[in-house]
Write a structure and sequence with these properties.
- The chain is globular, with a radius of gyration of 21 Å.
- By secondary structure, the protein is an alpha+beta fold.
- Helix content is 15%, strand content 27%.
- The protein has 2 domains: 125 residues, no CATH class; 82 residues, no CATH class.
- The chain is built from 4 helices and 13 strands.
């Protein structure tokens, strides 16, 4: 729930502007998920999204998205967000709280202390028992979509990690052949797989209880155009 911290941070310094028109922290263009969550396919939430969420059958339901736990690591926490956390923790949602949110008022402190004392709230990351979707070193950026009993995982070429503006002309040439080893956990399947990236290529993995296979999405971009005297 990073939005309050971003509002408090104000304007981005020029060296941290990742896009030509980026100006404020609250645009959230600079944010990256915590490295500790890299393999868990995290998404940001706000108190607005939590207001319509519910914890049921072991999952936090936010629209069509399902989550196993909430990770809270913020300096500032809106009182409305705190009230939603109290409600969801009361329903049994596991919440990992790494820092106390700041809001100098007696009612806020009372509610925060109540949250921290609830049975489903904890501060030790090792208490998370469910394995991440992906385990490994320097996990490439990816996106996962579940359809029935299958997961479709788009894994970007490692050279795309940490892209910044302005980009160099012909920068795609940096995406040379690469190999990564990961462990994938989904639907009862758990096993190591090799990600073999060809030049310029990303990968699409289909996972199910039966195992994994790769869907062909091969694409070769045109060579950068250059002017010669």
């Amino acid at each position: 729930m990073p939005i309050e911290d971003c509002f408090m941070a104000g304007e981005l310094p020029p060296e941290e502007r990742l896009a030509p028109d980026a100006r404020y922290f609250w645009e959230m263009r600079h944010l990256r998920p915590p490295k500790a969550l890299a393999g868990r396919h995290p998404l940001w939430v706000s108190f607005n999204s939590l207001a319509n969420a519910r914890f049921e059958d072991g999952f936090l339901h936010c629209g069509d998205a399902l989550f196993r736990f909430l990770y809270l690591d913020v300096s500032w926490l809106d009182p409305r967000g705190l009230r939603e956390l109290l409600r969801l923790a009361g329903e049994g949602l596991p919440i990992l709280v790494l820092r106390r949110g700041a809001r100098p008022s007696s009612p806020y402190e009372r509610d925060l202390n109540r949250l921290l004392s609830m049975e489903s709230v904890f501060s030790d990351p090792s208490a998370i028992r469910t394995p991440p979707l992906i385990e490994g070193q320097d996990i490439p950026d990816y996106w996962c979509r579940v359809d029935g009993d299958e997961a479709f995982i788009f894994i970007a070429h490692p050279a795309s990690s940490g892209l910044r503006y302005p980009m160099r002309y012909g920068q795609s040439a940096d995406a040379i052949a690469a190999r990564k080893k990961i462990r994938l956990n989904f639907g009862g399947f758990s096993g190591e797989i090799s990600l073999d990236f060809g030049p310029h290529q990303s990968l699409l993995v289909r996972a199910s209880r039966a195992g994994v296979d790769f869907i062909d999405i091969e694409y070769f971009p045109p060579e950068p155009f250059s002017l010669r005297a």
